[in-house]
Specification:
Blueprint lengths: L8 H11 L11 E7 L5 H11 L2 E7 L2 H10 L6 E2 L3 H9 L34 E13 L10 H4 L8 E3 L3 H11 L9 H14 L3 E4 L5 H5 L5 E5 H10 L3 E4 L5 E8 L8 H11 L2 H10 L7 H4 L4 H4 L12 E2 L7 H16 L2
Parallel strand pairs: 1-2, 1-3, 5-6, 5-7, 9-10
Antiparallel strand pairs: 4-7, 4-8, 4-9
Length: 349
């Protein structure tokens, strides 16, 4: 499923030079080039859009925001539509890398729930439309793990060595450590990275699998017994078998918001906006939720979910949990990546 190797635009531009020499074939005029997360947009939705509009969708997938940014900034391919996370929207807006959306062409924008409006990365939804949201939390196979697991320290215990799967995501890992040390997740700087390094050093040797694309798979296969994963993955696990319990870490949890945006200079902005408005239809958006059960920001689509789907604790966590959203951390993203890469190398993982 979706992966967040949380590197900001500055890091991506450094990587872009590697990709600048790449070339790709041109597509037909009435098409859009969509660059989105892997396993996140149902093929049926794409096919139905093409049938209705005649616009072909060339769907290229990426596994991280960093990968998307590197290709975007290289200019090797002209994308019409991308699917960045909230903090990346913030960075791209600062760099004037996104087209301003024409709300007159997006009548279904009215379906976006109030809690996804007025947020710091794009207060008026001028450059982005929320596609899907979710949390990062703890999944436990309760048939194998009998003790309570409610926080990061509970996961990273010696007795669970080689039984743990976590996201292959440097910033996620760092923010778990920041939370554990009582620091806010966006307090990413050189000083705080030094504070949390000793904790991360003890964690990484315990991990058996790093997987941001499909962390549910080693849990389903019985290769591991617990982990820290995307909520949509946890929701699928819960639907498969109620033995998979999902918990938001008591130290603090992260809410991500993935969006649809049009890159600056997109060849077919009009077609891209037609796709955005199409997936904002409640009957279309609910199809996405049914296949990829994250938290749907489309209030009208949520009404079409079954009571069982709305009761999935991973898709829609009960209560009123405090959730933090990432902000653009600029060049500190490079430090985060280096710290985790070095520590993984030292731990042999």
């Amino acid at each position: 499923m979706r992966s967040h190797i949380r590197l900001a635009l500055a890091a991506a531009m450094a990587a872009a030079a590697v990709l600048a020499g790449a070339s790709r074939p041109a597509y037909a005029a009435e098409s859009i080039n969509l660059f989105g997360w892997s396993e996140y947009i149902p093929q049926g939705v794409i096919d139905d859009f093409t049938k209705e509009t005649g616009i072909e969708v060339n769907y290229e997938m990426y596994a991280s925001n960093e990968e998307m940014l590197a290709k975007l900034t290289s200019g090797a391919t002209k994308y019409d539509l991308i699917q960045p996370s909230e903090y990346v929207i913030e960075a791209l807006v600062k760099e004037n890398k996104l087209e301003k959306l024409d709300h007159a062409q997006l009548p279904n924008l009215k379906n976006i729930a109030p809690e996804f409006r007025g947020l710091p990365h794009d207060p008026n939804l001028d450059y982005s439309v929320p596609y899907m949201s979710g949390t990062v939390g703890i999944v436990v196979n309760t048939e194998k793990i009998k003790e309570p697991v409610t926080g990061y320290r509970d996961v990273f215990q010696e007795k669970y060595k080689n039984r743990i799967v976590i996201l292959d995501d440097p910033l996620e890992i760092v923010t778990w450590a920041l939370h554990t040390e009582g620091l806010p997740p966006n307090a990413v700087n050189k000083e705080n990275l030094e504070k949390v390094k000793p904790l991360i050093v003890t964690w990484l040797p315990l991990v058996k699998v790093y997987d941001s694309d499909s962390p549910k798979t080693p849990l389903l296969n019985g290769d591991v017994d617990l982990g820290i994963v995307w909520s949509g993955e946890a929701a699928i696990l819960y639907n498969e078998n109620k033995k998979f319990a999902y918990t938001l870490p008591k130290e603090g949890a992260h809410r991500f918001i993935d969006n649809l945006s049009v890159p600056k200079g997109a060849p077919n902005k009009a077609g891209a906006q037609k796709f955005i408005d199409y997936v904002l239809r409640p009957e279309v958006s609910v199809k996405i939720s049914k296949e990829f059960p994250y938290t749907n920001p489309n209030a009208e689509a949520r009404k079409l979910l079954t009571p069982e789907e709305r009761a999935n604790p991973a898709s829609y966590p009960p209560g009123n949990p405090k959730l933090d959203t990432f902000r653009d951390i600029g060049e500190n993203a490079v430090l985060v990546d280096k710290v985790i890469t070095d520590l993984k190398a030292k731990s042999g993982t």
